[in-house]
Amino acid sequence: MSDAPTIRTVGIVVALAAEARALTSHRVYPDRITSLMNGTALSLGGMGPNGAQRAAHALVDAGATALAAFGVAGALDAGLHSGALLCPAEIVDDEGHLYTLDSAWRARLLQRLANTGLPVSAATQLLSLSVPLLTAAAKRAARDHYAADAVDMESAAVAAVAAARGLPFIALRAIVDELDDAIPATLQAGIDAWGRPRPFNLIAVLGRRPALLADLPGLYWRMRQATRTLRAAAHAASPGLGWNA
Predict the structure, then answer these.
(1) Helical H runs in the chain?
(2) Residue 217 lies in a domain
(3) What is the CATH classification number for the domain harbouring 136?
(4) Where does the pLDDT of residue 1 fall: very low under 50, low under 70, confident under 90, or very high at 90 and above?
(5) Per-residue pLDDT tens over the stretch 172-190
């Protein structure tokens, strides 16, 4: 790892430390660029569009000639299950901006993923919001309003940077929570912006709401399924998530 690596190809934006571990065994630090292989690099920006935008600009400033958003998403389609891969055709944000992925790059990525046996959903639209959808009702309302298949919080921000700077862009996501899954809002206090546990906060939350202990195994299992899929996809699609022919 280097504090100022030279990026020759793809800059990959991830929000969570667990997503970064699917791409590298090196320790990854927030808001710092980490070299991968063949001139690619990643930046751990944290949850939400602001961190993703900051990470994307940093990668381009360091020399990236293409941008990718990589990580997990929530399902808005009942047919998408935990661990499924999503390589959307387009991304829409909550202001109605529509971003189309680089078609040639996406085709190469899908071709590589086809050989893995992983469940891949391709003819899809990804919704990117600034706030998480924590309930089944909220996810169904978003699906009905935007006609999207899955939701995340960062891809549109990365796509916007790519568009503004004239670079190709792609997104690859693995489903964590399914359409009818709920994520307890109070558990958000138990993790930091990069998805890492905050032990004292988590203990305090569970002390006030001990019933939440019953939710932890399911949340852990879904995240494990998703990150396992991301790791397999990254291995099959490297280097550069299929950017290189």
Answers:
(1) 17-20, 49-61, 103-114, 136-146, 155-164, 199-208, 216-237
(2) yes
(3) 3.40.50.1580
(4) very low
(5) 999 999 999 887 666 665 5
